[in-house]
Amino acid sequence: MFIKRLFIYLLLIFSFVLSQKISYKSVGKLVRLKSGKSKYYNVRELQYGIFGVSCDEAIINKENTSFELMGNVSLWDTTRFIRSEKAILKSYKGKYRAFFSNGVTFDQDSINIRSKFARFSELNSRTIFSDSVILRCINPNLSLYCKNIDVDTKSEYIIAKKVNNLVYMDSTYRGEAITNQIEYDVKGNLLTMPKRVKIEFNEHSLGSVDFKKLTHKELNSIQLKTLPYLKLMAKKGSYNFKTNNPYLKGDVKIFHIDSLGKKTTLFCDTLIGKSSRSKVYFNGNFSIFNDSLSISGKKSALDYKENILKVLKSPSLKFKGNLAVGDSCYIKFSNKKSIESVTIYGDSKISNPIENTYLTNEIKGKYIKIFFEENKPSFLQVNKEAICVYFKPEKGKSDYKKNIISGDTLKVIFEESILSSIQVLGGVRGEYIIGK
Predict the structure, then answer these.
(1) Predicted confidence pLDDT, tens digits, the chain (436 residues)
(2) 61 neighbors 36 (Cβ within 8 angstroms)
(3) Which domain holds residue 352?
(4) Rg (the chain; Cα; Å)
(5) DSSP string, 215-275
(6) Residue 73 domain-assigned?
(7) What is the full DSSP assignment across 276-339?
(8) What is the rounded distance in angstroms from the CA atom of residue 109 to the CA atom of residue 103?
(9) C-alpha of 233 from chain center
């Protein structure tokens, strides 16, 4: 048993010694220092364990466990390449640690990171960059400026803290995110912002510019078009660049101004994008409004391929002074983003207040479809248990006639968003009451 243990112990020592072996592939002048260290000049290639090393000067201790590298330092393995002006490379129990300073550059696949300082530990496969850190990613086109970045080189996961800004760029849009922390899963191509975030998008006129040639400073100074404009805010969010799916949660606010200056505002609890279905889901409380329309509900989904917004629970619509409610509703938009029609299902009701009075016209039914022209209601159709209560003033008098009319189907015509005429089809009933 003792011999077996001794053999294992010697094997471990032998493996450790081998791991420290240096292969001097291309080095210049060698000077022996009084301390026993070796100083090499013009190191073009030196293999130290898994790393290749090159620099102007290298001081190596007698045990080959500590390197001081100076001038045009480069350190690389099969996947990573790090450059700086100074570096210290140490070995402990067969694992490597490295400290870099003065103009650090890190490259791994499509990721490029620049900073003043960096440190690497093979013990936990982490590289930490600090002080004025700039991260560039080519696919997707991202540029990040922050205080420090922690890279797990094994799992290819990046955490950036004290973020100044994150810039996204494509051939049409430039987006900028302001948040305190950003996490990026390189393998999954998933960008996560776990803390409060604000994102702004503007169009640019650069076309298909070579993103790699632009510095972070140049990206921040690109001339942008004022309109259209999009701003998103939430407590946290993420974007999957592989599936093109956005996710926002907590006090979600979206502000949009189109090329004509028309403003649209949206609020919801959670936004989930599903590009494979061409849909965006709005969970929890939801509301969207512009100068001509206001929509709210509890659960909604936008099918941007079919241009249909579905409010699936407790919908409420306000348009040109009218209020429509029901169990659910579908809003159909034209290609020009104006409203074509609104279909209300379930116990549906439309209220049409009469100006300068306390009276309100009401239309009820189990199915109501409203047709629009230039975002104004032109006519509507009510099916199943259709009832219309409307008031009409008598000529020369202040009294109003209260009219109640019902039937299988009602067709109501609007003029300038005001109820104008009613057509009843099937099962017609009606009455009127003279009020004050």
Answers:
(1) 433 333 333 233 333 333 445 666 666 677 777 677 888 888 888 887 777 888 899 888 888 788 899 999 998 888 788 999 999 988 777 777 889 999 999 988 788 899 999 998 877 888 899 999 999 988 888 899 999 999 887 788 999 999 988 998 888 888 999 999 999 998 889 999 999 999 999 988 776 667 767 778 888 888 888 888 999 999 999 999 999 999 999 999 999 998 888 899 999 999 999 999 999 999 999 999 888 789 999 889 999 899 999 999 999 998 878 899 999 999 998 876 778 899 999 999 988 888 888 888 888 999 999 888 877 788 889 988 888 888 877 765 667 788 888 888 888 887 766 667 778 877 767 655 555 4
(2) yes
(3) 276-436
(4) 34
(5) -HHHHHT--EEEEEEEEEEESEEEEETTTTEEEEEEEEEEEEE-TT--EEEEEEEEEEEEG
(6) no
(7) GGTEEEEEEEEEEE-SSEEEEESEEEEETTTTEEEEEES-EEEETTEEEE-SEEEEEE-TTS-E
(8) 20
(9) 10
Residue 265 covered by a domain = no
> What SS3 state is found at 417?
coil
CATH number of the CATH domain containing 323: 2.60.450.10
Distance separating alpha carbons of residues 177 and 237, to the nearest angstrom: 11
- In total, how many domains does the chain have? 1
Q: Which helix or strand (DSSP H or E) is residue 351 part of?
A: strand 339-353
Both structure tokens of 18: 């081998």
For 12, list phi and psi in degrees, rounded to 5: -65, -45
Q: Judge whether 319 lies within some domain.
A: yes
Comparing C-alpha atoms, which of 424, 347, 338, 403 is closest to residue 377? 338
CB neighbours of residue 108 within 10 Å: 17
pTM: 0.82
Structural domain contains residue 393: yes
User: Which pair of structure tokens corresponds to residue 245?
Assistant: 């799916």
- Distance (Å, rounded) from C-alpha 142 to C-alpha 183? 13
At 29, which amino acid appears?
K
